[in-house]
Amino acid sequence: MKLLLLFISCSFSLTNCSLKTHQNEAGQVNHQIAEKDSNYSNLTEAAYHVCHDKGTEAPYSGIYDNHWKKGTYKCTICQVPLFSSDTKFHSGSGWPSFYNQIDDHVKMCSDTSHGMLREEILCKKCGSHLGHVFKDGPKPTGLRYCVNSVALSFQAIK
Questions:
Q1: Any idea what DSSP says for residue 49?
Q2: CA 55/CA 143 separation, integer angstroms
Q3: pLDDT band at 14 (very low <50, low <70, confident <90, very high)
Q4: In a 10 Å sphere around its CB, with 0-12 CB exposed, 13-18 middle and 19+ buried, how is residue 136 labelled?
Q5: Residue numbers annotated as active site
């Protein structure tokens, strides 16, 4: 058990170290990203880590977790509409949560990373990682699309 805890602790430390080495202090775009993939060239390191590398942002850290304006949440990469503010709810999870998607624009696939079986959600148009979907949401769908804020942009209703 101690060995397992040591391994997990070291893994998190290495992950955090590798992320910090690529972030600039102002949170601006790192020009190395443009060399990796032009679809992701305008992203911050945090957004690149989530959308391209299938990472996650820390809970309660995203700008849309406690965001309740009326409008549409879009894919930060290709701007396809993904979720309506009408389906957003407070899940207490620390990430923006929705109980339904717009027009089947979100694709689901199995994710077995980190020793878990989860359903990953991706933008159907560009393949950008959004987060995961769980079967503990409210009616009518019973689903909770748990989305990273950095994977989204927001267009308010005028």
A1: H
A2: 21
A3: very low
A4: exposed
A5: 146
Tell me the one-letter amino acid at 99: Y
- Evaluate if residue 84 carries a pLDDT over 50: yes
Q: Residue 152 sits in a domain of what CATH number? A: 2.170.150.20
Whether residue 97 contacts residue 141, with contact meaning beta carbons closer than 8 Å, is answered with: no
Q: Say how far apart CA 120 and CA 123 lie, in whole Å.
A: 10
Indicate whether 107 pLDDT > 60: yes
CB-side neighbour CA atoms (13 Å) of 93: 23
Q: For the stretch 31-50, what's the b/e string if a residue is b when 16 or more beta carbons lie within 10 angstroms of its beta carbon? A: eebeeeeeebeebbbbbbbb
Supply the range of the domain harboring residue 27.
2-156
Say how many domains are in the chain. Answer: 1
- Give the closest residue to 34 by CA, choosing from 50, 45, 18, 20: 45
What's the pLDDT tens digit per position in 24-65?
334 444 334 334 456 677 888 999 999 999 999 999 999 999
* Paired sense of beta strands 144-147 and 152-156, if any: unpaired
Q: 107 and 124 in contact (C-beta within 8 Å)? A: yes
